[in-house]
Amino acid sequence: MSNTAKEKIEILRNKIREHDYNYYVLANPSINDYDYDKLYKELENLENENPNLISPDSPTQRVGSDLTKVFNSVEHKIPMLSLSNSYSEEELINFDRRVKEGLPSNEVVEYVAELKIDGVSVSLKYENGILKTAATRGDGSTGEEVTANVKTIRSVPLKVNLSNTDNYSLIDFEVRGEIYMEVEAFRKLNEERESEGEKLFANPRNSSAGTIKMQDPKIVAKRPLDIFVYSLLSVNTSFNTQFENLKVLEKLGFKVNSNYNLCNNINEVLQYCNAWETKREKLPYEIDGVVIKVNSIKQQQILGSIAKSPRWAIAYKFKAKQAETSVKEIRWQVGRTGAVTPVAEFEPVLLAGSTISRATLHNIEEIQRKDIRRGDSVLIEKGGDVIPKVVSVILDKRKKNSPLTLPPDKCPVCASPLYKPENEVMIYCENNLCPAKVKGQIQHFAARNAMDIEGLGESLINQFVDLGFLNSYADIYELINHKDRLIEIEKLGEKSVSNLIEAIEKSKEKPFPKVLFALGIRYVGIGAAQKLAEHFESIDNLMKAGIEQIEEVHDIGPSVSASLNSFFSIQKNIQTIDKLKKAGLKFISEKKEKVSNLLDGKTFIITGTLSISREEMKDRIISSGGKVTSSISKNTDYVLVGENPGSKFEKAQKLGVKIISEDEFSKLIEKN
User: Fold this and answer.
1) Structural contact between residues 542 and 556, judged by C-beta atoms closer than 8 angstroms
2) Going edge to edge, which strands form the sheet with 172-181?
3) Cα-flanking dihedrals φ and ψ of residue 596, to 5°?
4) What are phi and psi of 635, to 5 degrees?
5) pLDDT digits over 347-374, tens only?
6) Rg (CA), the chain
7) What is the DSSP string of 125-184?
8) I need a labelling partner for 239 at 20 to 30 A (CA). Which of 136, 344, 541, 671 fits?
9) CATH superfamily of this structure's domain 435-507
10) What band does 383 get if pLDDT is binned at 50, 70 and 90?
11) Which is nearest to 432 in space by CA: 561, 306, 528, 336?
12) What count of other Cβ atoms lies within 10 Å of the Cβ of residue 620?
């Protein structure tokens, strides 16, 4: 190794970093592609000749070769808070009032308004100016490490020049931003996927979220991801304002959205919001609103946070985008419960970054209320810029003698009779062997929030049902017996089948509440399954319980109890549960470890917003021997009150129930 090689490598790296910054951050390239490739190749050759000089921050190390099998958890020492949303000028004015009420009187309040990029939040941690880890937001407290994938984004600097910010003494710091994909780049990506026969992405945000969690960085590197950063955090440095924070990020070489604006008052904020709502379509990327932050960091600290949202910031959400199209057809689909749902098929139309060709019409009463008919011109929008829906029919454009839309009289899949329960708007297929019901039940069972069987997606489930391998979700655990035949299926192969069998085996570790939810019992959602599993402790106890016993569980009502009673009365369902038991699934609750008997026999009500999640607080109470209920009575021992409590707080006062704050509860526990 010679000093000359080392010096050459460092010179080349600095040149390439400068060109990357000019191209990917400033969008102002200072070199042509040919000359850039020559520099890159020269660096690559020198590093290959001197492998001991290769460092993680080198431009050649952006794309790793190792697959990421597991995305490790990363704790956010400073939580990545979510923002409260506002949808009107009045709500922004109320936000301004609350800010001023929370500060010393007569203090001047400035705001920084920034475009709300419709992307995926990420945290980047730097040590001595070198990128060390990148993590997703997750639940705000804990995210997942995606460093290898984020390094492939060219606008993310692997190394920053700290000398540009000597005044701030930056050493180790964290940067937060939003990963996104430009609309045109997204369109081209979908064109490529369509030409290769692959499933299309719904919109730029979804494609960004899916890409950042891919296992292979080489594939991620081929996707057109980009980033805008909006916050710099450092224990060594304090900023006076958010405006100053953004300026320092720019000096460090990060890509900051240049459309931010310092506003002297809320009226200027409103002008900014209104201006960008009218011209957002002209941007090359998608935004869904504006983020408004109190500019003064000192004022931010005074205002503080409530639960998972800061009091000093708010998101102003733009009105949903709308488009006009026509209804080509109204088709009826059968779901896992047998519910027959109408779906409108449209002339494809571009709306909010994606092409919309269909939307659910929910039920026959919704169709009748809006009087939607085949051939109608309709106005559609995306609820929350995500789910398309029909807003209204353009009656002036309706054809004469257009026939009313009527519900089907038999199942559109298996031609079985349909029935409509009393007091319900939905109609149902009665045939438990209806292929559409079977496929839907298996999809629900294998879904991520249920048994989480990776690789067993919709297309594979459809194929397995059609080929006769799956007649119910219990058959999933017998697929291992058909391994040789599965390998012969086109596009599967031995590796894919082995991975699937492994994922199926792994699903047997899921706890009882997940298994209960996965059974797909009508009205038994994730929350209800958790409560029922905790109360009855096993499937056998639940199956023996009568309707009255089930309704004794807090928050479990007549619809759930009747559905459970009906489900367990069907012999086929009992046989399916027996098969799942034999396969090794967990139908008994794992009892939470009891830390102490301090709260034995004590009943708690929780109301208002706490500094931690309600589930976490509930776990603390239960682990100390207490019980959490939802209905307050004179027999309730404590009402634990957070910020902005509801009517239970007032009822507790009337009943004379002891009211304690979160701090008082903590002191009560600490006594133990």
Assistant:
1) no
2) 130-136, 120-127, 172-181, 225-233
3) -155, 170
4) -85, -5
5) 999 886 678 899 989 899 999 999 999 9
6) 29
7) EEETTEEEEEEE-TTSSEEEB-HHHHTT-TTS-SB--GGGGGGGT-SEEEEEEEEEE-HH
8) 136
9) 5' to 3' exonuclease, C-terminal subdomain (1.10.150.20)
10) low
11) 336
12) 18
**Residue 540: both structure tokens together:** 């056998």
Among residues 116, 293, 439, 514, the one annotated as catalytic is 116
Query: Both tokens of residue 88?
Result: 């009107």
What angle (nearest 5°) sits at the alpha carbon of residue 244, between those of residues 240 and 250?
A: 150
For residues 273 and 267, is the Cβ–Cβ distance under 8 A?
no
How many whole angstroms separate alpha carbon 598 and alpha carbon 621? 9
* End-to-end C-alpha distance for the chain, whole angstroms: 64
**Structure confidence by residue, pLDDT tens digits, 258-268:** 999 999 999 99
Range(s) within the chain of domains with CATH label 1.10.150.20: 435-507, 512-583
Could you tell me how far CA 219 lies from the centroid of its own chain? 22
Distance between CA 492 and CA 579 in Å, rounded?
A: 26
Tens-place pLDDT, residues 306-318: 767 899 999 999 8
Give me the architecture of the 3-61 domain, per CATH.
Orthogonal Bundle (1.10)
3-state secondary structure 422-448: CCCCCEEECCCCCHHHHHHHHHHHHCC
Contact 430, 416 (CB under 8 A): yes
